[in-house]
Amino acid sequence: MDRTIDHVAFGGMELYELRTAANEVGLTPTYGGEHNTGTTHMAVVPFPDGSYLELIAPTLGTDAEDSGFWPTHLAADAGPTAWCLEVPDVAASAKAAIDAGVPVDGPHEAARARPDGRLVEWDMCFEGDDLRLPFTIHDRTPRDYRVPRTSHNTAVRGLRTVVVATRDREATASLFARRHRYSSPVDINGPFTNFAVLPGTPLALCEPGDGELDARIDEVGEGPCAFLVGVTDLDRARQSLSLGPEIRFSDRRMAWFDHDLFDRRLGVVELP
């Protein structure tokens, strides 16, 4: 069981647009290269705690529907796509999933070539028949090949919360309890209706309370709909990040990044 987010994937049709949007709100992505499928490429926004935001899109000339990773999400410009936990042994993690009654796709070997020519290699495994559950990863090459050591923005600390949209919050919570031994959901005031956190975990759940989330689930299925990055102080973060209005997150403050691509999809939350 791992309760720390390794990285999250934020997908769309054009990597240039995703990178431009990130730069405009104060995040600095580094181009990470093309995956070994030849159908997707990515950029990394690293955070000081070692987690990172992956911006991912089809390569030039590739139809999104033919992408090796998350074709439905990329074709829909869906933004939040998937989330990942690092594990010491992907095969052992896959066995634990099977023992918990969760089907798996993997383990698989994967790689991408960085612009400097260095090959990054890892093992990965996808779990479940939807994207509510995280996939797992273990590096075959040193982790700093995959994740740049430096973060360009010291106002943020790292990824803190994955918000999963689901039509049945209790069923999804039960799935996480069975697979990852996550705690029971606790209702709080937050950025979505029917919103709850699972204390001690990086997970929050919401059910559709408006047409936007309903339409999202119809289009891409249940799974991540938003990612939150931790900051020590929201007012200080505004000095270097472009953020929208303040929102309550239980007894803390949060805000969405002030860009159409990130609104209600990518935000910051004050650390407790």
From TrEMBL:
InterPro entries in UniProt: Glyas_Bleomycin-R_OHBP_Dase, Glyoxalase-like_dom
SUPFAM superfamilies: Glyoxalase/Bleomycin resistance protein/Dihydroxybiphenyl dioxygenase
Gene3D superfamilies: 2,3-Dihydroxybiphenyl 1,2-Dioxygenase, domain 1 (3.10.180.10)
Glyoxalase-like domain: residues covered: 5-178
Entry protein name: VOC family protein
Species the sequence originates in: Haloferax litoreum
Organism lineage string: Archaea, Methanobacteriati, Methanobacteriota, Stenosarchaea group, Halobacteria
